[in-house]
Specification:
Layout (H helix, E strand, L loop, with lengths): L3 E9 L9 H11 L2 E7 L2 E8 L1 H12 L8 E7 L7 E5 L19 E3 L1 H8 L4 E5 L3 H4 L2 E3 L13 H8 L7 E5 L4 H12 L4 E5 L2 H8 L7 E3 L1 E2 L6 E2 L9 E2 L6 E2 L1 H4 L19 H19 L11 H23 L3
Helix pairs in contact: 1-2, 9-10
Length: 331
């Protein structure tokens, strides 16, 4: 069986004509047979793709041929099945959205720390360790002793950090995230706010789990990843978590047995978050997915992000309310 390579990459660089890169990059990906998502912005590139060894190498060669992206690094892991359903190249305002204008990792960033040296750094008494990921990611695994900002999106991190630093009394700040990209911006933010000793786990949690033996690790739990693998463990082995297709949060086997769980519709974490109209739409979508599977096809709805699904369902809910309003008015 051919092994599927999963390549995660990002690189901050000034790409003033990034829109012009979209079509050639998508063509290169499709020619190579890769699937996944790549984001382009004036500040660089970010994304994860999966495919054959030859396909991944071809796409990486194309990316590194782009002026400014020659030094793009990537991290690899492996999957038994293709973790993505299609290939997308999207244009964005930021390759990782923090929403603080002027924060530029190309100009200033924290000090990179190799995974092999990370344990020694965070064991120091004058270091505060901060997990820059969102709360649902932190819940299934983090470094021992790390501060959890309890954010729901990365946009909330700057406000949290501004409040946190008022009571912060340790001179050194160490930050980490899944693959390293969020820390590029969070450490740049910390430096902009006047912190001098700011450190950044190079390659993120994924590189740490790949390079540091489990018996020497200070990582507890599993690491959430943004594809159909859901989570990985030490050695980047496949984790034990499943995922709620409605809210995209990780769930355990025990969570699936809870009364709030309906496949593709809700779990105990999002059961009260959606209107009856949205749940009905989710249920219909799940029926279409199951029918598509029986026919041996991929249903387009499977590849929608939670944000896009929510937006589409909100529009449908508004449409239904409008119809109901007209009916009650006798129109």
């Amino acid at each position: 069986m051919t092994q599927i390579i999963v390549a995660a990459l990002y690189h901050f660089a000034k790409l003033p004509n990034y829109e012009e890169l979209q079509v050639p990059l998508l063509a290169a990906c499709e020619a190579a047979g890769t699937k996944g998502t790549l984001l382009l912005a004036t500040e660089g590139i970010n994304g994860t793709i999966a495919g054959s060894r030859e396909g991944i190498d071809a796409v990486l060669a194309h990316i590194r041929s782009i002026p400014g992206l020659e030094a793009t690094e990537h991290k690899e892991s492996f999957a038994k099945e293709m973790p993505f359903l299609r290939m997308k190249v999207r244009l964005k305002n930021e390759i990782v959205t923090m929403g603080v204008p002027g924060t530029d990792p190309s100009n200033i960033v924290g000090t990179y720390v190799d995974p092999e040296d990370w344990n020694d750094l965070i064991a120091q008494d004058d270091v505060i360790l901060i997990d820059t990921r969102n709360d649902y990611e932190v819940q299934i695994g983090t470094f021992k002793g790390a501060v959890n900002p309890k954010t729901t999106t990365f946009r909330e991190f700057p406000e949290w950090f501004e409040k946190f630093q008022r009571t912060h009394n340790k001179p050194k700040v160490a930050m980490f995230c899944t693959g390293g990209i969020r820390c590029e911006k969070s450490t740049a933010l910390a430096k902009d706010m006047g912190f001098e000793e700011v450190f950044h786990l190079k390659g993120g949690i994924l590189k740490y789990l790949e390079n540091v033996p489990e018996e020497k690790s200070t990582w507890e739990g599993e690491c959430f990843v943004f594809d159909q693998r859901v989570s990985v463990k030490h050695g980047l082995e496949l984790g034990s978590y499943d995922q709620c297709f409605a809210c995209r949060r990780p769930i355990t086997r025990a969570d699936i047995d809870k009364p709030e769980f309906t496949k593709g519709v809700s779990c105990h974490q999002c059961y009260d978050e959606y209107s009856p109209e949205k749940k009905a739409a989710f249920e219909e979508r799940q029926k279409q997915i199951e029918l598509a599977k029986k026919r041996g096809k991929s249903h387009v709805g499977q590849d929608l992000t939670a944000e896009r699904v929510a937006a589409r369902l909100a529009a449908e809910e508004a449409r239904l309310k409008s119809i109901a309003g007209k009916e009650s008015a006798g129109e």
